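Exercise 7.
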Amino acid sequence: MIDACRERPAINESTFLSAEDEADLDATIQTIAESHGHISNLMQTLALAPRGLATFAALNGYTRYESRLTELQRQLAILVAVRDVHYAWTHHAPLARAVGVTDAQILLLRDGRVPKDMTAAERALCDYAFEITAGRRVPQRVAEEVHVHFSPRQIIDIALLTASSMAIAALALGLEVPIEPTETLQFELEWQQRKMGGMIR
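Solution. The predicted structure, written as tokens, is:
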């Protein structure tokens, strides 16, 4: 399945958009390029619905760059949300390593477990994100613990980021989005390093 997807272009010569859609798309693509450094295969695929892409990209931009979470906290929530999806995991595992998440911690998160060697706040965030991804009511103990370490605004940010990352994972699977080549993924990592102003090592 993955090999077959790699050979299928996200947008090809049989794709046609109206003049209105083209105008909407041009503006959105420019915004995404400025914030992300490139247009991922997922975003290219969503470009077939330009206004949908614009709305989704706006949410993605907020959760990735404007929330009141550290970059490490963001990457932890994302890893929890996308742990079963190769496309999203391939993008974010390197970014998580770059902000200090260890290989051992990454493996535990992918296995659905919270690493014990994280800070109490990081463990609370991961527990909370795991409960959201499970699609059930958050247990009282998990809710109480996340409130100890995060403000109400930050908790909303965690929930939004986890949910939007789950959407990315679902879209990548449902639309059979092919993973980008290695050089594109490397460019993405370097772009994020520059964007975060040295926060990413």
